[in-house]
Design a protein that fits this description.
The protein has 2 helices and 36 strands. It has about 450 residues and is mainly beta.
Length: about 450
């Protein structure tokens, strides 16, 4: 009995010796230090380590300001973000400051807002291998310029300012058009409200690589910010920015509207209500007095079609443009030369080619790259569509999009092929819309055949 007690005592003694050693194990989980205060105008040096792979800064005294934040490091690929007091990310950036550095430009800080700046590596942000090293974080007040209605200003993007902000005051219901053009870079426009929220942005609606926002109706009275920049966010060069308040005329299908071009009126704007599947033709007849061009934009300010000399003489004509949205569409008529005179604009809705009447020819050209067609569908019916080149020529960019009630039900494309065949089942009774696109900008024909196979 004494021997058993002795062995039990020895065992308890060993456990008492071993257990404290196990309790001394420490965690190596990375910790985030408490936020350090930073104010506008500060530039601070810091370092990310394995123990602290990110750093937080509490932004002070920036309420009501537009600010720029820059994070630069030669040691790691930086990632910069800003969150509000609810923890919501309000701005972020990876590589907009050259190389692998980060920059947030023109951040609007509301009065009373509590913002926290987070500096970290991109690896830490995506949850992979966190990088370490030294960095420089700076906060500065953004350069803000003013622009007024009817003004055109010139500016320059530099490596120190990849975008420029222009403030204007507008009234609720004002219809504005904003243009940014550059010979040096692909421009990009943003329109922000007084809180810094983005209302609209645009890349190429101004023609070529230029940007245009509008016609856009201002939702409230107050200050707005136009941010002029580039599509890449890193381009430099000169640009021209214009802001105009315009009056648009309502036009409906079947209407003809007469406008006058004078020294002070070089653009005219028209709006109409369109529906998905509508096909429209728009003509401008100047009787050879004024050289103009036409642009059709959808409700989201994206360009649907553009033409300069597709009509009679040097008059433009937008021929059989397909609408793929419901809402308000905008027609822009611009003078290309300096001549004055009268132009008559006509808007018509035209019926699409119908495959119910047999095979149809889709004829493309440099000015006609999209051709709509339709047929009457029966729910559950299986059909076959075939597109064939009668001449045997091949297309490098032929696309077929089939929709019913706005929903895509079949799609096909061909590269260097002379035919497309697609079979599908019609989901519902009613019209089935086809949009055939060919972007070689050459004269090209396809025969379109419908077979009802079951």
């Amino acid at each position: 009995m004494m021997r058993r007690l002795l062995w039990f005592s020895l065992l308890v003694g060993l456990l008492l010796v071993v257990m404290p050693a196990a309790a001394q194990t420490t965690s190596t989980t990375a910790q985030v230090p408490e936020a350090v205060e930073i104010t506008v105008g500060d530039e601070v040096e810091g370092a990310l380590t394995e123990a602290a792979p990110s750093a937080e800064y509490a932004l002070q005294g920036a309420g009501g300001m537009l600010i720029n934040i820059s994070l630069i490091s030669e040691d790691f690929d930086s990632y910069l973000s800003v969150r509000d007091d609810a923890g919501t990310i309000v701005a972020f950036n990876d590589d907009s400051n050259g190389e692998r550095n980060s920059r947030i430009v023109g951040l609007a800080v509301p009065e009373g807002a509590v913002y926290t700046i987070v500096a970290e590596s991109y690896g830490q942000y995506i949850g992979s291998a966190a990088q370490t090293g030294d960095y420089t974080l700076s906060v500065s007040e953004a350069q803000v310029l003013r622009i007024e209605y009817t003004q055109t200003v010139e500016g320059e993007l530099t490596s120190d300012a990849f975008s420029l902000d222009y403030i204007f005051t507008g009234s609720s219901g004002d219809t504005v058009v904003i243009n940014e053009g550059s010979d040096d870079f692909d421009s990009y426009l943003r329109l922000l409200d007084a809180s810094g929220a983005e209302l609209f942005s645009n890349d190429d609606s101004g023609g070529s690589l230029d940007s245009q926002i509008g016609p856009f109706v201002l939702p409230s009275t107050g200050s707005y910010t136009i941010r002029a920049g580039s599509l890449s966010g890193e381009a430099t060069g000169n640009f021209t920015l214009s802001l105009n308040r315009i009056e648009s005329q309502a036009i409906a299908y079947g209407d003809s509207v007469e406008v006058e071009f004078t020294n002070n009126a070089r653009e005219h704007y028209f709006t109409f209500t369109g529906a998905y599947g509508d096909i429209v033709t728009i003509t401008a007849d100047s009787s050879r007095t004024v050289d103009t061009d036409l642009t059709l934009n959808d409700p989201y300010n994206s360009q649907v079609m553009f033409d300069e000399d597709g009509g009679s003489g040097f008059d433009p004509e937008i021929d059989s443009a397909s609408l793929f949205a419901d809402g308000t569409f905008t027609v822009i008529l611009r003078a290309v030369d300096s001549a004055n005179g009268t132009v008559v604009v006509t808007l018509d809705r035209v019926p699409p080619q119908s495959l119910d009447e047999g095979s149809q020819i889709a004829g493309f050209s440099s000015s006609r790259t999209q051709i709509p067609m339709l047929f009457t569908g029966v729910a559950g019916e299986k059909v076959r569509l075939t597109l064939t080149s009668p001449s045997g020529n091949t297309s490098s960019s032929l696309n077929l999009d089939v929709r019913q009630d706005g929903t895509s039900i079949a799609y096909a494309n061909a590269n260097t092929l002379s035919a497309i065949t697609v079979e599908f089942t019609v989901p519902n009774d009613g019209d089935v819309n086809l949009l055939i696109s060919e972007y070689s900008y050459t004269n090209f024909q396809f025969e379109v055949t419908l077979e009802r196979v079951g």
